[in-house]
Structure formats: C-alpha cells, structure tokens
Design brief:
The chain is built from ten helices and six strands. It has helices spanning 2-6, 22-35, 52-62, 79-90, 108-118, 136-147, 168-179, 186-190, 196-206, 221-234, and strands at residues 13-15, 42-44, 70-72, 98-100, 126-128, 156-158. It has a six-stranded parallel β-sheet with strand order 1-2-3-4-5-6, with no helix packed on it. Strand 4 (98-100), helix 5 (108-118) and strand 5 form a beta-alpha-beta unit. Helix 4 packs parallel to helix 5 and helix 6 (136-147) runs parallel beside helix 7. It holds the Pfam family LRR_6.
Amino acid sequence: VCDVVHHNPNLRSLFLTNVNDGDHGTSILGPMLGSNALQLVDLNLSNTQLSNHGAGQLSNGLQDNTSLHQLNLTGNKVGDEGCTTIAKALHSNKTLAGLGLSANRIGDEGVISMAHMLRENSTLEFLDVSRNEIGFKGAKAVATVLEDMANSTLSYLSLKFNPVMGDSEGIHRVIEFSIKLNKIGFWKFLHEDRVWPLIMRQLYGTHGGLDVSYLLLRLRPDSMIGASANMCNSTTEL
C-alpha cells in the first residue's frame, strides 16, 4: 500500500481486493484520507479480511475527508462495531455518495446506527447492506427514516439476503414503508387489482432472493412503472 500511494501522488482510484491485510492497509490509508494528503475518489477494499479495528482506522480518516465518493467494503468482517464507527464518521463526512457493506456480519445494532446517520447525512446516495444478519428491528429502523423523509438524497438501498427477508410480514412492511415515500399518487397505482397481487406474488415467491432496494418514487416514478410493467409481462395470470 505504501509503495502504491507514494509512487502515485495523483491517485484517484485504488482497488485492493482479495488480499488478507485489510487492517494494515487502513492503518496507512486512514490518516492519509483524514489529512486529505491522498485525494482518492474511489476506494475498494472488498474481501480483504477487514475487521472492526480496520473499519475504525478508516472511519477516523473519513470524518475529515473531502474527496472520497465511493467506498466498497464488501465481503469483510466489520460487524456491528465497525458499522457503527463508520456511521459515526458519516455524520460529519460531506462527500461520500456510495457505501458498500454487503456480507460484513452486520446485525440490527449496526444497521440501526446507519439509520441514525441517515437522518443527518445529506450526501449518501447508495447504501448496500445486503447479505448480512439484519432482522426486522434493523430494517424497520431504516424504513422509518425513509418514511419520515428525513433523508432526501439516498436513492438506492439494498437489504436483500438478510434474515428479515425470510419473514413475509417483515418484507411487506419494509416495502410498504418504502412505497409511502412517493408523493405523486403511485401508492394508489400499486394497489390496483391487477398490479398489487402480482407484486405480492413475486414478493412471497422469492423471499430471501428479493431485493428490497428502492428507487425513490418521488424521484424515479418512471422506474416504478417500468418495473411493474415488466412484472406484469413476466408473471402468469393469477
């Protein structure tokens, strides 16, 4: 990491994936990001055995960083503790737009800290917490923030392949919270006799495979119409 950084002072994208020294890397990158000596825009540390300790080192740098837009930590071991430290850093960070935390052993505690962060953060647009250990309590905390419209920038959230996705009632309520975000009449559209049953059939038929990502309907209504149309075309008549 030292060699890569020191020999490339104008580095904007750094991909250090599928290695086993994630914590060592963040001990170097964290301070550099914090001092803005390294003007990275895109940092990928997926599958690097990054622990909550490494996440903490990275978070210290994120608090004052003014350049990083994308951070991918997929496939690590940050856990609830690491997720919480990252969330705290994003209370003050004003530039990060995308955060990937899929497959990181994150449970309700970690994602609830993310929900609290979303109430204050005004730059995050993409958040992936799929393939973790999030239950209904954590998913509801996030959904409540979205329902309250406390966050106006987040446009993509992935909760797929979490325990809550195996609970039909839990899925329904999270989806319902997300749908209520729209302010332009699509709630009624989605409850049309020919549309809602198709959505619910798909919902209960896929369970854990269902991506409860949402495209904010108030920003992307055309996407919702397209998705519903595709579902109608691909699903047999009830």
